[in-house]
């Protein structure tokens, strides 16, 4: 067992009554921005705790049936939800997630991709980003937090809303980079952690900080969770200092503590 796994297993054991960690099948709903980190860290938690993780993916908001709020509205069971912080806060306000369970996980910034083989565009400054977007035949962005910002605020900040309106498309549910990789769109904008895992694209970089939007990802425990104690252990692990190297490797930034 790796050192990190041993430490985690010890922490889990002493946190349970009688020092015995009881296995549970945790149902986890996670949205795109933290998914790459979760896919690396989840198996480590499962191996050390003897719990199993049953995971479904879906955006933090939007009209898609797969969106986490819509899943909960239909009564789908969940022990943990991982999503955009302000969308989680709305679920807390509605009484669907326990307020005292909220844990902040990571910050996510928006980046840009083009199809692999295409020249890598310059987006190092606001002026360069504006020039790149104006030159694009088509621009794709997500139906979650980053795409809402791109469509409603970024284009306006750059003064190109009128020009980009007929060329911009909000992509539901699937990764934006996947439609860029197929050549359906020339440029794709989404959170970096959702762009990097997709093959067939070239990552141009993060948006300049003066027009960047930082999305805080957080997690919580739904009020009807069947395994709240084990869910809390998972959340504590995902936010722990020991895993921040893995979190950062997926394109996310650690939350200042």
UniProtKB/TrEMBL annotation:
InterPro entries xref list: ModA/WtpA
Record's signal peptide: 1-23
The keyword Zinc is assigned to this record: no
Stored Pfam families: SBP_bac_11
Alphabetically ordered keywords of this record: Signal
Name listed for the protein in its UniProt record: Substrate-binding domain-containing protein
Organism: Pseudomonas muyukensis
């Amino acid at each position: 067992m790796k050192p990190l796994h041993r430490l985690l297993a010890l922490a889990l054991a002493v946190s349970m009554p009688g020092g015995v960690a009881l296995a549970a099948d945790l149902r986890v709903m996670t949205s795109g921005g933290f998914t790459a980190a979760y896919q690396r860290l989840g198996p480590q938690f499962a191996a050390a705790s003897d719990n199993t993780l049953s995971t479904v993916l879906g955006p933090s908001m939007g009209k898609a049936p797969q969106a986490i709020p819509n899943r909960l509205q239909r009564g789908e069971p969940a022990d943990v939800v991982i999503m955009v912080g302000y969308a989680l806060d709305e679920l807390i306000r509605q009484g669907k997630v326990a307020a005292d369970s909220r844990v902040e996980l990571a910050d996510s910034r928006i980046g840009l991709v083009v199809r692999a083989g295409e020249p890598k565009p310059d987006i190092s400054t606001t002026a360069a980003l504006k020039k790149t977007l104006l030159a694009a035949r088509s621009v794709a962005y997500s139906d979650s937090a980053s795409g809402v910002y791109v469509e409603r605020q970024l284009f306006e900040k750059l003064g190109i809303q009128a020009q980009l309106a007929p060329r911009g498309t909000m992509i539901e549910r699937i990764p934006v980079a996947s439609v860029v990789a197929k050549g359906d769109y020339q440029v794709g904008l989404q959170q970096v952690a959702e762009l990097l895992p997709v093959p067939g694209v070239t990552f141009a970089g993060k948006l300049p900080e003066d027009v960047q939007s930082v999305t805080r990802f957080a997690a919580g425990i739904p009020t009807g969770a069947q395994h709240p104690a084990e869910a809390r252990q998972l959340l504590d692990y995902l936010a722990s200092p020991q895993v921040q190297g893995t979190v950062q490797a997926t394109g996310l930034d650690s939350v200042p503590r």
